[in-house]
Amino acid sequence: MNLxxxxxxxxxxxxxxxxYLITLVLPVLLYFISVRVTNMFNSNASYLALPGxxxxxxVLNGILDLxxxxxxxxxxxxxxQLHLLKASMYQLVFVLILINVITSLVGSLWLFLIAFxxxxxxxxxxxxxxxxxxxxxxxxxxxxxLIGILVAxxxxxxxxxxxxxxxxxxxxxxxxxxxFPLGVVRSDKILNIIGYLLVPSYSSSIMGSAFFxxxxxxxxxxxxxxxxxxxAELHNIWLPSLISLTSGLAFFSLIFVINYYQDK
Length: 264
What we know:
This protein is mainly alpha-helical. Helix content is 77%, strand content 0%.
């Protein structure tokens, strides 16, 4: 671990106002909007909208915030500091992903607290599998970070990077179960197929399973949470995890292939 590099990146990350807006403010606003939209489909909206909204924190940080940070560390005055530190591309990517995962965990817990304080008994804490909960956040944040770095590598123009990042984020938000509950997306055959092609949908599936891990049998047999019908194997987190990790490895390899040819 390059500690001087970690200090520089941390100082940049936590002194940026947009980091706090993206981590602590925007996900909360989007959650309350999602609750209102979901309420049109199901009266248990505050709980159904929460899994995707929590993952939204990591995706926002990874695709929007990290793509900007990666661009600035490679193209602005920060690049000279990295050169003086003799920091490699591998070290920069690792440090950015580490900070993004930590930030996403903090932001996700903050959103969960806001939801719990706002809706009280509607948030069924006793149903949640906390291992799957944190694993989904880490996995989703990791994949989103790699996608964000790939977006930053697509152009040397910051405006192009921002437009691309926003476009990718919106596609994920609406089709990977981050804004609408995953069950709503999967209820449409075409959107369901598209959703399976989007890597963040697998983290969304894990998070959905985490929130309904210990749901009582009578709830499963009722129509209170119809979205549960779209979790064929409620406790199966290993296949989505394997797909996400494999995709992450592919993104990681692609980052260094692109960087290698750009530096030549």
